[in-house]
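Predict the 3D structure for this chain.
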Amino acid sequence: MQPERSPATYDYAVIRVVPRVERGEFVNAGVILACQDASFLDARIELDTARLLALDPDADIATIAQHLAAIPAICAGGKRAGPLAVLSRRERFDWLTAPRSALIQTSPVHTGRCADPAGALDALMQKMVRTIRAAR
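Done. Predicted structure below.
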């Protein structure tokens, strides 16, 4: 039996797909979570293509999926992160969550506390990304 960890502070941002930036409409497609105390940086992605196509029937799903797949790779570091791999976890989080006017954006950064960053990431996915119908 492992001892229970004390709660640590984490930062997170919701990943948004904005198919037509000029309209400002978006679909939440994932969450990025960073916890310094646990040396944790990860992202989960789940794109609801039906919801996205309801906003923009001409959305290029393959290109969007490719861009979204880069986010967990950047979080993980290593060769798949490309030149960003040399950055610290915190620097990669800050780069990923920097405000931008693009197809893939993030919400403002929010803070929480948890003893299990992976569990907190899963809970945020359930709350912020998955639709009620998909959660059933």
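The longest helix spans residues 61-76.
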